[in-house]
Amino acid sequence: MASTNRHEREMLSKAKKAYESTSDPIEKLRLACLSRGSSGIKGLGRVFKIMDDDGNRTLDYNEFKKGLRDYGLYLEPKEVKNVFEAFDKDGSGNLDFDEFLVTLRPPMSNARKRVINEAFKKLDKTGDGNITIEDLRGVYNVKHHPKYRNGEWTEEQCFRTFLDSFDSPDDKDGRITMDEFLNYYSGVSASIDNDAYFDLMMRNAYKLK
């Protein structure tokens, strides 16, 4: 259900090539995240969230700069400053990182957002805005998973691996929010040029009508 290896490879290749040729600081940061995989933007969000000690969901320039560095994204000092200033629209010296992450997502058509939303709602059986292992029971059939079929994994391990694929490697909490789902599939979307193909891929993966 998550990104196929082929889509992941295509996206990494596209992002790395485009990174070398773009001069726009926001696009450069977006591509730097995507070059780390489909969950790259989500992973950056996790780093910022950890740094937000007072829970006000804003970052000053030094926190922003440290967050990029901690995540292993090395932009030129001038580029970091340009990105920060592009988001600090009121000149307050702080940026709202929720708005920042939404803007950082690769652009997607409304048709793609709709089918992603449809898939999320199908998986979120309880309707509480989070997908957990309990939600997946009866919705995600693991019987065709090769590692379940050969006895290597239990049903629980298949569910956990599915959830982990949407998480950054260093912070796996066993649940997926709508924002995390969107951030992930915006990365997958970046490797697929055709809306109809993206829609078909999502409908087949999640058995949507």
TrEMBL record:
One of its GO terms (molecular function) is calcium ion binding. The keyword Calcium applies. Keywords: Calcium, Metal-binding, Repeat. Pfam families: EF-hand_7. Coiled coil: none annotated. The keyword Metal-binding applies. It comes from the Eukaryota. One of its GO terms (cellular component) is organelle. PROSITE patterns: EF_HAND_1, EF_HAND_2. This is Calcyphosin isoform X1.
